[in-house]
Design brief:
The structure is a homodimer. The first copy, chain A, is built from 9 helices and no strands. Chain A is elongated and about 70 Å long. By secondary structure, chain A is mainly alpha-helical. The first copy, chain A, starts with 15 loop residues before the first helix and ends with a helix. Chains A and B meet through helix 6, helix 8 and helix 9 of A and helix 6, helix 8 and helix 9 of B. The first copy, chain A, binds a DNA duplex through helix 3.
Chain lengths: 209, 209
DNA sequence: AGCGCTACTGACAGAACTGTCAACAGCATC
DNA sequence: GATGCTGTTGACAGTTCTGTCAGTAGCGCT
């Protein structure tokens, strides 16, 4: 068929690290689009421009490749969540923070990747999201705000945690589901704005009982 | 090998409908656990106790089988959402309704199945959830409540829709993610109770601006 | 230039999977 | 009991995939 004889293409020799990274990139894209069972050594190799034994050389086996993909993807997900916290968020910036989390989910199809990995049993479930630093940051800001206003009962950390969890879970599945929706049947920006308003109100006022 | 020679087992002849249903059951379980690419004709056939050409006889091809699985699964998901609406929910029953939706997600791993199908590009995205009847029901009840209390601005239908969407999305991914979590690191019942309280408050009071 | 390390490759083996086909065998009907 | 329909099957073909292996070749180092 249209197969280019490899002997014509001069052999490229990368450092092991470069080669591993390039292979992981290709494999991660396939995992995101088709799930773990859709990751084929030959396809990965072709995408990178190497022969499939090269992939085995670097990762030992298909299993090893999938493990490496999962490990790297989950690590960057955690790091990404942390990167949002560089500056402590003001509660008025709820919308900004929310958009940042949403962008984090969408970027590179991370929500899809995360769901694929989780469904395949790779991630650490809810804990794997690494929410704690985010929760701590929000909760600290929240506590300061309530103290400044002289309100009595501070909201519990669990309340802040659940608020963060709710937001994350919703944005996660929204990011994964929205692509398939007929165009603009749901206005994602409007939903984001609405959710930010809801969160803003709840974070400031808490649950009345 | 421990392979039982099939000739010893007397051949069972089901009606076409029964056979199709049994095959779909097995295939759906595999799709839920491993995704579409993990559905193998031979495995499906073995699970049902038939030879793999039988599966092809009933569904034409592997593609045909997957399409049928998707169609049936998505249909029951929609029907299931409707079944919660037999009696119009009182807003005080938010918790009950929420638990019903959550149970709907968990039962038979429907949340997992739905996510697998959506990630594979089968479902209709957000619209495929069939939320509209649920939203209409909740919104009608809500409007009656607000009228009875003599409040001026009724909340928009979009507000009710977003509220429902938020809940559904969160419960969906929670159901899929929670299995993997180290035991009881997140208390799902507590989260459900918290979310019900939040929803109750929002549905009754709306967003202040 | 020569050498060593190792990234990289083609060819092959073995297994698994989808799909085809002719034939078998329940079961209802006559 | 014979017949027809069709659910069901074993055997086979063709493709594709993972993994092995011996050998090739790029690149840094002396």
């Amino acid at each position: 068929m249209t197969r280019t004889p490899r002997s014509v293409v001069p052999r490229r020799r990368r450092t092991a690290e470069e080669a591993r990274a390039a292979i992981l990139d290709a494999a991660e894209a396939m995992l995101r689009d088709e799930g773990p069972a859709g990751v084929r050594l030959q396809d990965v190799a072709r995408a990178v421009g190497v022969a499939h034994p090269t992939v085995l050389h670097h990762f030992g086996s298909r299993e090893g490749l999938l493990d490496a993909v999962a490990e790297r993807a989950l690590a960057t997900l955690r790091l990404g969540a942390l990167s949002n916290l560089k500056s402590e968020p003001a509660l008025d910036d709820v919308r900004v923070l929310l958009e940042a989390v949403a962008a984090q989910m969408d970027g590179g199809g991370r929500a899809r990747t995360l769901l694929q990995l989780t469904l395949a049993g790779y991630g650490g479930g809810i804990e794997g999201l690494g929410l704690d630093p985010l929760v701590d940051s929000v909760h600290a800001t929240r506590g300061r705000l309530w103290a400044a206003r002289g309100r009595r009962k501070k909201p519990s950390r669990e309340d802040t945690y659940f608020t963060t969890l709710l937001t994350t879970l919703a944005l996660l599945s929204l990011s994964a589901l929205k692509e398939r929706s007929k165009k603009a049947a749901v206005s994602v920006p409007r939903f984001h704005a609405w959710l930010a308003a809801l969160l803003h109100q709840h974070l400031q006022q808490g649950l009345e009982r």
